Amino acid sequence: MDTTTTPFRIDIPQADLDDLHDRLAGTRWPHPVPGRSDRRDFSRGIPQPYLRELAEHWRDGFDWRAQEARLNALDQVTTVVDGQTVHAVHVRSANPQAMPLVLCHGWPGSFVEYQALVPLLADDFHVVIPSPPGFGFSTPLSGTGWEPARTAEAYAEVMTRLGYARFSVHGSDIGSGIAGLLAARHPDRVIATHVACEQRILAMVGDKFPFPDGLSDDEVAQIDHVRATVAADRGYLEMHNHRPDTIGPALTDSPVALLAWVVEKFKAHGDARTPDETVDRDQLLTGVSLYWFTRAGASSAQLYYEGEHSGIDYFAFSPTVPAGWAVFDTHPLARRALDPWRAIGHWSEFAEGGHFPAMDATDLLADDIRTFLRGRS
């Protein structure tokens, strides 16, 4: 088995950039629906006036080459694990005592999600950001069966090849499940796990988590309200879980379809701001561009299908590996509902941020990771 790692630089062919521009210019837009002119009204999904603004900026105002140069400032490698090409950002700290730290992202994230976080962590950590199979430059997929547990095993192998016997892990979204699986399967190697989430995780109460004892009727109603809100946003999840091959061609052939599918997920819960008022517009479009150029819109959805049909336990955190949670855009019932036994040693809550704290609460997340991991070895 070839265990080498190969330095990697991004160099998207100009023909791909030209093709993207032409496709955006030739978008066949739906007929506008009378009464749907408010660019901030996401009640039926991403509003067309707002989507048109983003598409026009992507076509005429966004500079991929400038963003590509910024991404290439981060050292990157590829390696082949279990027949699958795996891409990873690998930024070594100048500090010889630095702790290796794996940052695990989910969908529709990418290593771009952590771009601003890396320099804030580089004094204390050797930072590794793998792309799951089917995401970013970990494409194309080598075959079926790349569910989160197998992905966690691939990450452990990547860390071995980079020379790290032990390491800590941070994750958000499905990346938090990968982080937990790493700890559960390699408790001798994982120093600690840190996960980030936001108040919508309360929707898992009554499903993945039991309702805690002693809640009042009003408190149950508050959780049910979050559950109902999240249920309205589950369309993409059901499609990924059960019919990724149906949505895949649209996400590969139409940049505006991909843009709508991804950017809607950056609409912060209960926030009047548009996604690009919550996170940096060009960073947002850099992530979408990465999905477009690598055709990962289709292949990344497969991770959900594989996970849904694998029977794995996404919450298989190791009882012996220290765990920390950071809850952004928090809810008053967050810890009472999710950790009523106070079993999680490090628990932080923030009013700011949302589902992508590495992008919209970068300093808070960096400080919380450092605080939790300080002094561990």
UniProtKB/TrEMBL annotation:
<comment type="similarity">
    <text>Belongs to the peptidase S33 family.</text>
</comment>
<dbReference type="GO" id="GO:0004301">
    <property type="term" value="F:epoxide hydrolase activity"/>
</dbReference>
<protein>
    <submittedName>
        <fullName>Hydrolase</fullName>
    </submittedName>
</protein>
<dbReference type="Pfam" id="PF06441">
    <property type="entry name" value="EHN"/>
</dbReference>
<dbReference type="InterPro" id="IPR000639">
    <property type="entry name" value="Epox_hydrolase-like"/>
</dbReference>
<keyword id="KW-0058">Aromatic hydrocarbons catabolism</keyword>
<dbReference type="InterPro" id="IPR016292">
    <property type="entry name" value="Epoxide_hydrolase"/>
</dbReference>
<feature type="active site" description="Proton acceptor">
    <location>
        <position position="355"/>
    </location>
</feature>
<feature type="active site" description="Proton donor">
    <location>
        <position position="304"/>
    </location>
</feature>
<feature type="active site" description="Nucleophile">
    <location>
        <position position="173"/>
    </location>
</feature>
<dbReference type="GO" id="GO:0097176">
    <property type="term" value="P:epoxide metabolic process"/>
</dbReference>
<feature type="domain" description="Epoxide hydrolase N-terminal">
    <location>
        <begin position="6"/>
        <end position="114"/>
    </location>
</feature>
<dbReference type="InterPro" id="IPR029058">
    <property type="entry name" value="AB_hydrolase_fold"/>
</dbReference>
<keyword id="KW-0378">Hydrolase</keyword>
<dbReference type="InterPro" id="IPR010497">
    <property type="entry name" value="Epoxide_hydro_N"/>
</dbReference>
